[in-house]
Amino acid sequence: MVSAPTAEGPGAPQRTPERRALVAGSVGNFIEWYEFGVYGCFATVFAANFFGADTGDGTESLIKTYASFASAFFFRPLGAALFGRIGDRFGRRPALVLALALMTGSTTAIGLLPTYATLGAAAPWALTLVRVLQGLSAGGEFGGAVSLMTESAPQGRRGLCGAWQSFTVALGLLAGAGLAAGAAAVLGERALYDWAWRVPFLLALPLGLVALWLRLKLEETPSFRRTRRTGASPGSPAARREVFRSIVTGIGRIMGWSAAGYTFLVVLPAYLQNTLGATFQEALTAAVLANLGFALTILPAGALSDRVGRRPVMMAGAGLVVLLAFPLLWTVRSGSTPVAKGLVVLLAGAVVGLMAGPGPAMLAEMFPTRVRCTGLGLAYSLANAVFSGCAGLIITELVQHTANADIPAYYTVVTCAISAAALLTLRGDDHRRALPD
């Protein structure tokens, strides 16, 4: 239970641990996903500046760009294990402070990197190294932030509080896509390719310093304090095997969320440009609309899952992707009006939000407090490494080799169908139970 709110004076607004946890957890998530959104929207810019798209095959350079993008995701599980261990042993606060400091520094460094024209063949390696550091920090961010938010939540509001993690993901992606689209409109495509792409990454420094200040003022969660008092250990070999099974099950439950989320929200701009011949501005506008739809449904989905359970809401999202993926893609490729295409892209993002809203609370409820940071962080980061980080690489490679423009739909349908099956194993009353210690 959350301790009672305290007033700071007569008539002063009450600040609850829940609210402080939401704010401190949210700002770090925002910065992390803001950067990933910018990188995804600027995939063709990075292909030109770091992977030599101007001197060779543009598709091959884009594939290399996505390979660098994927590398960060494959270091996420290592970050989840490292920072998760810190969070489970020493507290959520130190883990979140360290993860945020690494994320802020590495994101700012991207804005300072010399390009291929200056550094030659070393430029893509430098970019990949910085993205590896980002992957480590991002791996630790999710487990710590979700543990903080859900453990600080009052009974019956874990879904809504956990949904703030996904909501700030949406805000970060939306801010990244919006800033990219605005820069392209105001400064022009040439300036964006020449120098203006650096600005969004440099903005991470002041944002990160504010977020760091907020996290340094955090208190530990009631669940962690209670576990520390009782001296709970990681458990017996049987308990560790159960944690491993929970991680595997968690991956299955969220793989559709991971795959559909990155396909519709991050990979879409480059797909529209590279496969369908859309302009840079049209592609970025589509990304903004998809992320807007995503943001609109996350909090309502999280709140609804507190009333009816995680399973029906998340299964509805996975099922709708299976039913709508091909029609959505066909509409985008057709001669439909811009308004119709915009509504379709908005709907694609909204459907993903049905999975992303209840998802964090669902994962938190799968693990005991003593291993929650590590367990849910590993489930999330492993699913994202395979099904999110590789989405752009897989889709671009398969479209190139098969000439089949429906590849994104096949990818999301298969992964969401598997997730729907895994979600059937959820108990219907998990949302009503106390978090296990």
Beta-strand segment tally: 0
- Provide the structure class: mainly alpha
Largest sheet: none
| Count of individual helical segments | 20
Distance between the termini: 13 Å
The ordered string of helix (H) and strand (E) elements is HHHHHHHHHHHHHHHHHHHH
Query: In angstroms, what is the radius of gyration?
Result: 21 Å
Q: Bin the strand percentage.
A: under 5%
Low-confidence stretches: 1-15
Shape: globular
Overall pLDDT metric:
84
Percent of residues in helices:
over 70%
Please give a structural write-up.
This protein has 437 residues and is an all-alpha fold. It has helices spanning 17-41, 43-50, 58-74, 76-89, 92-110, 116-119, 122-151, 158-187, 189-194, 199-202, 204-216, 222-230, 237-274, 280-308, 310-333, 338-356, 359-364, 372-387, 391-402, 407-423. The relative contact order is 0.16. 78% of the residues lie in helices and 0% in strands. The model is unreliable at 1-15 (pLDDT under 50). It is built from 20 helices and no strands.
Structural topology:
Blueprint: H1 17-41, H2 43-50, H3 58-74, H4 76-89, H5 92-110, H6 116-119, H7 122-151, H8 158-187, H9 189-194, H10 199-202, H11 204-216, H12 222-230, H13 237-274, H14 280-308, H15 310-333, H16 338-356, H17 359-364, H18 372-387, H19 391-402, H20 407-423
Helix pairs in contact: 1-2, 1-5, 1-7, 1-8, 1-11, 1-13, 2-3, 3-7, 3-18, 3-19, 4-5, 4-7, 4-18, 5-7, 5-11, 7-8, 7-18, 8-14, 13-14, 13-16, 13-18, 13-19, 13-20, 14-15, 14-16, 15-16, 15-20
